[in-house]
């Protein structure tokens, strides 16, 4: 069974940091693009960051550039989202997703094959 399990969410003060982790099992991790998405109740789901399967090319939505860093460790089947200088508007449920392919850097939700359950990030002001 393919599983993506996020962890690392929590409650932080504005300006604080969190590192989210995405543990992936049941697939060949190195063959999949990993994306991080977030969704706040009542709002549309938003792509946050993507990292390609092989060469590690990354892409970020404008609102998190310079603050968030996506990474992956193919040897450990893990992906991460380091979030610094958090803002209240970053409050959301963050999910990781996997898309099979050698290269993909998009936020098209239907392109992703597997999704995790999400982890809550709350940033207080």
Describe the model.
It is a single chain. Helices cover 0% and strands 50% of the residues. The strands form 2 sheets. Strands 2, 4, 5, 6, 9, 10 and 11 form a 7-stranded mixed beta sheet that branches. A 4-stranded antiparallel beta sheet has the order 1-3-8-7, with no helix packed on it. The chain has no helices and 11 strands.
Layout of helices and strands:
Blueprint: E1 3-7, E2 10-13, E3 18-25, E4 32-39, E5 46-51, E6 58-60, E7 68-73, E8 78-83, E9 92-100, E10 114-115, E11 119-124
Parallel strand pairs: 2-11
Antiparallel strand pairs: 1-3, 3-8, 4-5, 4-9, 5-6, 7-8, 9-10, 9-11
Keyword list:
mainly beta, seven-stranded mixed sheet, 0% helix
Overall number of strands? 11
The helix count comes to 0
SSE ordering: EEEEEEEEEEE
Shape: globular
Overall residue-averaged pLDDT value? 96
* Strand proportion: over 45%
Amount of helix? under 10%
Low-confidence stretches: none
- Class by alpha and beta content: mainly beta
Main beta-sheet annotation: 7 strands, mixed
From the N-terminal CA to the C-terminal CA, the straight-line distance is 40 Å
Radius of gyration in whole Å, from Cα? 13 Å
């Amino acid at each position: 069974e393919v599983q993506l399990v996020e962890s690392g969410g929590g409650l932080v003060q504005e300006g604080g940091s969190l590192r989210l982790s995405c543990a992936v099992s049941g697939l060949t991790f190195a063959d999949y693009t990993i994306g991080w998405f977030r969704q706040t109740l009542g709002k549309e789901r938003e792509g946050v960051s993507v990292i390609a399967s092989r060469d590690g090319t990354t892409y970020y939505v404008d609102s998190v550039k310079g603050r968030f860093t996506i990474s992956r460790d193919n040897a450990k089947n893990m992906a991460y989202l380091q979030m610094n200088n958090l803002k209240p508007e970053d409050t959301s449920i963050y999910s990781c997703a996997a898309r099979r392919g050698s290269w993909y850097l998009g936020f098209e939700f239907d392109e992703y094959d597997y999704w995790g359950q999400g982890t809550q990030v709350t940033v207080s002001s």
